[in-house]
Specification:
The structure is a homodimer. The first copy, chain A, has about 325 residues and is an alpha/beta fold. Chain A has 3 domains: about 45 residues, 434 Repressor (Amino-terminal Domain); about 120 residues, Rossmann fold; about 140 residues, Rossmann fold (3-Layer(aba) Sandwich). The longest helix of chain A has 17 residues. The first copy, chain A, is elongated, with a radius of gyration of 24 Å. In chain A, the strands form 2 sheets. In chain A, strands 2-1-3-4-5-11 form a 6-stranded parallel β-sheet. A 6-stranded mixed β-sheet of chain A has the order 7-6-8-9-10-12, sandwiched between helices. Helix content of chain A is about 40%, strand content about 15%. The first copy, chain A, has 12 helices and 12 strands. Chains A and B meet through helix 5, strand 2, helix 10 and helix 11 of A and helix 5, strand 2, helix 10 and helix 11 of B.
């Protein structure tokens, strides 16, 4: 007995729709009304249509790899390396290699012939490589959302919840006048930090004094901002530093101002890393669990490639609060 | 007019040798006596033999990628990320992708069908993945030498010269009794640090007090080693820390012992990174220039793949001394 494979065309004929509409509907591309999408899925299920597994196998055989784009400008390289290793580990479980993408060059052929899909981590509005990646003709998953209209999957972190946890933590350890060094700019992250500080202050009737520092602030810039903050407002008894890697500057400025860090002055960071773990004292920080984040991004892309989930699915990634001596009164 | 391409077989016939011997001779594989190698090269040049460019193009077309293996256990992730970006940049100039390799799994096909060549960075004797990589059937370049007999290219750093520069620097800034926290184990790097300390001490008639710390020491372990060292030998007026990322621990212990770091007590690190740049004060260190190191490794592999250089070529990579406040008496 021969079983004929049900094709996309069979589903399209049964539904009275074009092949591309049926494809969009089954891939959850968002261009198709939800009612149509449901009807197409029912017809496909009724016919026993297996979503495109032959084409998927073919596509995998042709490249067997996914691409990984990381921001080059950032200072958080140990974060991105951990993330990359996580993505490699997860992709390997599906037999896929991870190609580390550099800046686009003419030397290369089109991306779609080289990879089955793309991971684009922390896509910044200013990164000129990103639009081309999002338009390369293969499924894309971004780590954090891309600030523009685009059809892709995303794995996102709840930055409002993690800053709330830090503010609750310093309050629980005695802080009554916390300051926040917030990154400049209108990135989703910077906006989340500022609006969270405002809403937390209103809820607890505790003012949060916000000062701006560069998006990629150096420890020196954080130190100078802290020095000015303490000179203007000596009642400040805690400083939370937004930008990654800059919190040791807060520590240095507080010590230089004669504050007893961890006892009458608390220091914390919105991003954990080498700098916060190796400082003296070590600094309380939000661990964004980069290896697991990389795994989650790769897992979503694999699910999209295997058509186990819609191409525009959004998933959430958990963080953890790492409390250390900089906020723990002995 | 048609020009017939001179093949490896033509060279073998003219030389009266087997094709594999001629291939070994032209690739500089080391299995062929130097005299034979020279004779084969002369014959090949005389016939106008172009080393295997057709086969090379074919091989490139089949994968278009090189693999990159990094140690996962190490803490120096920002170092390796910089190195990886450098390698990607250089490989791109030849139209090659860089595949980030994870742990070997059964899910994957043989490496030789997926990549044209391999970069194996800091191959450690204990890394179980390394022997398989070195035997994958494609050209290999290691970053630092592999501690075992193997035919591959390597890019190496002069660790004796960089420690000598650090010792000369602290001596030039007043240190008369330096200590060295040397990594345990018999890696090429650990051995170079210990033997250099001994020879420098003999040359300058200045004792260098060497203490062992773990190969991947934490700042806490470096702090404890420093505390013990200062308790045993209060005349110590400088400490150079071997393991990457641990030097802030030396700094913390020195400050806790009441030493004025940068003035009457100098601190330096054999490896630069986030931890040394962001500490207070920032710590003098050897910058191993990881991005350029990655470029150099990829460049050597590209040269070997293009048969522009022998498969066992060794190249040297330069470091730079970054002097900072921890060793500069104001």
């Amino acid at each position: 007995m021969t079983t004929r494979t049900v094709t996309l065309l069979d589903v399209a004929r049964a539904a009275g729709l074009s092949k591309s509409t049926v494809s969009d509907a089954l891939q959850g591309s968002g261009r198709v009304a939800e009612a149509t999408r449901e009807r197409v899925r029912e017809i496909a299920d009724g016919l026993g249509y297996r979503p495109n597994s032959a084409a998927r196998r073919l596509r995998r055989a042709s490249t067997g790899a996914i691409g990984l784009h990381l921001p080059h400008t950032a200072t958080r390289l140990d974060y991105y390396m951990n993330l990359a290793f996580g993505a490699v580990e997860r992709a390997q479980e599906e037999g896929l290699d991870v190609v580390l993408l550099g800046t686009p060059t003419a030397a290369h052929g089109p991306l779609a012939t080289r990879v089955d899909g793309l991971l684009v981590i922390d896509p910044e509005a200013g990164d000129t490589a990103v639009p081309g990646l999002l338009d390369a003709g293969v499924p894309v998953v971004t780590g954090e959302r891309y600030p523009g209209p685009v059809l892709c999957g995303a794995v996102v972190c709840d930055n409002a919840a993690s800053l709330t946890a830090l503010l609750d933590h310093v309050r629980g350890n005695g802080a009554r006048r916390p300051g926040l060094l917030a990154p400049e700019g209108d990135s989703a992250w910077a906006q989340a930090l500022r609006s969270t500080a405002t809403s937390w202050a209103a809820k607890h009737r505790i003012p949060v004094v916000v000062r701006s520092v560069p998006f990629v602030a150096t420890p020196g810039e954080a130190a100078e901002a802290t020095r000015l903050l303490l000179a203007e407002d000596p009642a400040i008894d805690a400083v939370i530093c937004g930008p990654d890697g800059a919190a040791p500057g807060v520590l240095g400025a507080a010590i230089a101002a004669g504050r007893a860090v961890g006892r009458d002055f608390l220091v914390a960071s919105c991003v954990d890393g080498v700098a916060t773990r190796t400082s003296h004292p070590p600094i309380t920080a939000i661990d964004l669990r980069p290896a697991d984040y990389g795994r989650a991004c790769a897992a979503l892309l694999c699910d999209i490639l295997a058509e186990r989930t819609p191409a525009d699915a959004i998933r959430h990634h958990d963080w953890a609060l790492e409390t250390r001596a900089s906020t723990l009164p002995g």
